């Protein structure tokens, strides 16, 4: 079926909001492109005239560096390998950290005694500048992947933990009472009421948490590693190669945006039951 | 079957629906008994609030009892005591002649607030009870489909609660409660938030689904018309702390249609009787409220 026929078959009510979107979407995209062109253009121009490109680099040099990395490889081997290493550290750290955060968050959210016992420790642990732990982990786990994973885990854990805790606490008491009356045992209440009810809280934290996982992996690599994008950036810093730092940043940003997109897909699927709230509004 | 044998019991529901009025409710064994029940709550400022004081009443198997009383008098507390969700301070609560220690078997409770699960479809909401009680997913869904149809929601099985109106959500809650085939049914102002027409619809639906099940019902409400139109017996509570002030029998024939019955002379007699009893308590509550505001 052609796309046109599909539109014709769609119910009439759908047709009303369409024209506005059709008119608005290109206008927004055009404005965005214009802004980027303006920004990069003025940067390029200034770096070619009065700014010193040695310190500030310029878009064309950064672009050339990215192309060079992807075609000729980096000082430490193929760029794909560096990306794969960083991504693996971030993903493994993200998974371990969020599972631990959800489990402990829900446990403490439902168990009042446990929560009261642990509260001061968790507050103290959260107050530690955890990024410093990266140095400690390099000593503990060496220069390999595990020290980066550990850094990612400690960053992810707290982001997820506090949301899971809050989510598990805010479960509607009437819904729990209702489930108990219907015959639910404590385990069933946990899995059919508490967890689904906390899901929107947990999912909201996962967006931030993946960003933290990437930060953890990169800071870990920066502190000491033999592979990864953090190492690449560290090396660029050591050789006063500002274009290399920018190029590394851009690659990491693209990876983070892709992960964000995947997480949004997951969220939509898991939260399909929610009323469509302000879906037409701008979302950031 | 001799008319004097109480034909109620677990096995009678729902297959052998009985003709109305075969036996008199007065002869049936007690399903719920409250004996001198007092319940106090700790308030935030460290003081105590007595919700019920020395409350006693009995609901027989198959009897529909409405509980009316002034706002905030502790009507709902009596339900949570019967359901086992809360424990009485003094006095005893019996369900099916056994003291209440946990949630009694075959008890249904419809809450005032929405208690349907927002992340489940209508069908899976209704299937929750059988699932919790160990039925397979398929069996529970088959059973739920039947109940969804009985409350008039056929075709809405795959909808989520937020896509339904308030009245439809109440139907889901009703089906969710009745699918467990309760022999004790507690209802806490279940239709309070609905508009008048929807409410009357729901009342008739409730009477239809309840008739012949032999379930004992305790129906808490503010609405005198609703209380009398549905019930065999109306229990009038005093102003807080609640205790039983009056018990009024409603000898109106069943089956009833709510919108018609309220115009009958016999209905109006009962209404006057209940209101006479309740008025004083409402005035006490009001003057207390006024004193607090002043």
TrEMBL record, chain A:
Stored Gene3D superfamilies: MetI-like
Sequence ranges assigned to domain ABC transmembrane type-1 in this UniProt record: 83-267
CDD domains for this protein: TM_PBP2
Keyword check for Membrane: yes
Localization: Cell membrane
GO cellular component, one term: plasma membrane
Membrane-traversing stretches: 30-51, 90-109, 121-143, 149-168, 189-219, 245-266
Pfam entry (one): BPD_transp_1
Family: Belongs to the binding-protein-dependent transport system permease family.
Protein name per the record: ABC transporter permease
Organism: Planotetraspora thailandica
UniProtKB/TrEMBL annotation, chain B:
Molecular-function annotations in GO: ATP binding; ATP hydrolysis activity; glycosyltransferase activity
SMART domains: AAA (SM00382)
Lyase listed as a keyword: no
Domain ABC transporter: 32-264
CDD domains: ABC_NrtD_SsuB_transporters (cd03293)
Cited InterPro entries: AAA+_ATPase, ABC_transporter-like_ATP-bd, ABC_transporter-like_CS, ABC_transporter_ATP-bind, P-loop_NTPase
Gene3D superfamilies per UniProt: P-loop containing nucleotide triphosphate hydrolases
Keywords: ATP-binding, Glycosyltransferase, Nucleotide-binding, Transferase, Transport
Protein name (database record): Mannosyltransferase
Organism: Planotetraspora thailandica
């Amino acid at each position: 079926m052609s796309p046109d026929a599909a539109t014709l078959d769609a119910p009439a009510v759908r047709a009303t909001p369409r024209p506005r979107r059709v008119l608005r979407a290109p206008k927004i995209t055009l404005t965005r492109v214009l802004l980027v062109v303006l920004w990069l253009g003025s940067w390029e121009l200034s770096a070619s005239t009065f700014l010193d490109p040695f310190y500030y680099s310029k878009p064309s040099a950064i672009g050339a560096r990215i192309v060079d990395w992807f075609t000729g490889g980096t000082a430490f081997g193929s760029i794909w390998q560096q990306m794969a290493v960083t991504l693996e550290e971030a993903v493994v750290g993200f998974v371990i950290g969020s599972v631990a955060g959800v489990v402990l968050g829900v446990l403490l959210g439902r168990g009042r005694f446990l929560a009261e016992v642990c509260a001061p420790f968790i507050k103290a642990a959260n107050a530690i500048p955890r990024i410093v732990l990266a140095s400690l982990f390099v000593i503990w786990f060496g220069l390999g992947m595990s020290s980066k994973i550990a850094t990612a885990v400690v960053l992810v854990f707290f982001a997820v933990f506090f949301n899971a805790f809050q989510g598990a606490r805010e479960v509607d008491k009437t819904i729990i009472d209702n489930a108990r009356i219907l015959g639910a045992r404590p385990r069933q209440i946990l899995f059919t009421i508490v967890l689904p009810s906390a899901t929107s809280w947990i999912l909201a934290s996962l967006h931030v948490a993946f960003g933290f996982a990437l930060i953890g992996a990169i800071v870990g690599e920066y502190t000491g590693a033999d592979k990864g994008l953090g190492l690449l950036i560290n090396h660029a810093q050591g050789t006063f190669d500002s274009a290399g730092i920018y190029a590394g940043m851009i690659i990491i940003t693209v990876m983070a945006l892709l992960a964000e997109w995947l997480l949004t897909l997951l969220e939509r699927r898991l939260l399909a039951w929610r009323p469509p709230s302000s879906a037409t509004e701008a979302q950031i | 079957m001799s008319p004097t044998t109480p034909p109620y019991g677990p096995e009678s529901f729902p297959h052998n629906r009985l003709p109305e009025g075969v036996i008199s409710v007065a002869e049936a064994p007690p399903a719920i008994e409250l004996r001198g029940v007092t319940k106090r709550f700790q308030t935030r400022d460290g003081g105590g609030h007595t919700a019920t004081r020395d409350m006693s009443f009995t609901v027989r198997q198959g009897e529909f009892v409405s509980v009316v009383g002034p706002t905030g008098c502790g009507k709902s507390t009596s339900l949570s005591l019967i359901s086992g969700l809360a424990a009485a301070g003094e006095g005893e609560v019996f369900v099916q002649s056994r003291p209440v220690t946990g949630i009694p078997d075959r008890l249904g409770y419809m809450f005032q607030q929405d208690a349907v699960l927002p992340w489940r479809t209508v069908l899976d909401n209704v299937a929750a009870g059988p699932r919790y009680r160990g039925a397979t997913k398929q069996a529970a869904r088959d059973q739920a489909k039947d109940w969804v149809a009985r409350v008039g929601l056929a075709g809405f099985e795959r909808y989520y609660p937020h896509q339904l109106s308030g009245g439809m959500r109440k139907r889901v809650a009703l089906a969710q409660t009745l699918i467990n085939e309760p022999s004790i049914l507690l209802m806490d102002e279940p239709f309070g938030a609905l508009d008048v027409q929807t409410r009357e619809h729901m009342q008739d639906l409730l009477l239809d689904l309840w008739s012949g099940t032999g379930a004992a019902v305790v129906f808490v409400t503010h609405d005198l018309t609703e209380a009398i139109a549905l019930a065999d017996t109306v229990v009038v509570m005093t102003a807080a702390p609640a205790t039983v002030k009056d018990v009024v029998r409603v000898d109106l024939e069943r089956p009833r249609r709510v919108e018609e019955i309220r115009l009958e002379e016999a209905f109006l007699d009962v209404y006057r009787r209940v209101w006479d009893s309740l008025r004083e308590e409402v005035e006490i509550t009001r003057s207390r409220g006024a004193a607090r505001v002043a």
